[in-house]
Amino acid sequence: MNETEIFTEALKLAPGNERNAFLDRQCGSDIGLRARVANLLDAAPGHDPLLDGEKRWITTSTFRIEEKAGSQIGRYRLMEQIGEGGFGQVF
Asked: Which CB contacts under 8 angstroms, 24+ apart, belong to 54-63?
């Protein structure tokens, strides 16, 4: 198989062990070919190297902010709220 054929077939496989085994079989000892195909796979749309090899669950949490002006956190007292945004409140 040539580089394009290996790339096309590898895209059909899930990232991780299955794809790596396929690349090992097809590229053999040609590390240059393996590197070129790996670079193509890394640049493929939808590729996320953080998720390669395992499935991960991404969850979100909703935080309820209980602090308000006058609250005390450790030795600090919140005097007044000066801002608010996507990451919380600023006192």
From this structure: 54/16, 63/88
pLDDT digits (tens, 9 = 90+) for 16-37: 889 999 999 999 999 999 999 9
Model pLDDT for residues 4-17, shown as the tens digit of each residue: 999 999 988 888 88
Query: pTM score, two decimals?
Result: 0.50
Contact yes or no for 1/26 (Cβ under 8 A): yes
Of 19, 24, 22, the C-alpha closest to 44 is 19
CA 43/CA 39 separation, integer angstroms: 6
Say which amino acid occupies 14: A
Q: DSSP string covering 14-82, please?
A: PTTHHHHHHHHHHHTT-HHHHHHHHHHHHHSTT--GGGTTS--------PPP---TT-EETTEE-----
